[in-house]
C-alpha cells in the first residue's frame, strides 16, 4: 500500500494569544496517532498569516510529520478541519510532500558490519 507524508502546522496559541492547553494538544496527537499509527513532532516555529479580515496574525506552531496510507488522505483532511474548529483557526496548514516515506526494519543478520 502506497504511503504519503504530510506536514501539518498546529498552532500552540489561540488567536487571542492564550496558550492551547496541554490536554488539547495531547488529544490532537492521539487522534493523529489513531489515524496514522504514529507521528513525529518536529520544529516549533513562528509564522504570519493574513486573516480574512486583513489582520496580520503571528502564530507559534508545532510541525507534525504524518505518514498515512494514500487512501486515508480524506480522513486526514477531515481531522485538519476538526482541529481548525477546535483551535478557533480560519485554516490549518497541511502539506503533502513529494518524497516517498519508507519504514526500514532491522536486518535479520543483526547489522551491516558483520
Structure report:
Helix 1 (22-36) runs antiparallel to helix 2. This protein has 114 residues and is an alpha+beta fold. The chain is elongated, with a radius of gyration of 17 Å. It contains two helices and four strands; from the N terminus they run βαββαβ. The longest helix has 15 residues, at 22-36. The chain has helices spanning 22-36, 73-86; strands at 3-11, 40-50, 56-69, 93-96.
Strand content: 25-35%
Q: How many separate helices?
A: 2
Shape: elongated
Which structural class should the secondary elements be placed in? Answer: alpha+beta
Keywords:
114 residues; alpha+beta; 4-stranded antiparallel beta sheet; 4 strands
In short:
This protein has 114 residues and is α+β, with helices and mostly antiparallel strands. Helix content is 25%, strand content 33%. It has a 4-stranded antiparallel sheet with strand order 2-3-1-4, covered by helices on one side.
Topology:
Layout: E1 3-11, H1 22-36, E2 40-50, E3 56-69, H2 73-86, E4 93-96
Antiparallel strand pairs: 1-3, 1-4, 2-3
Helix pairs in contact: 1-2
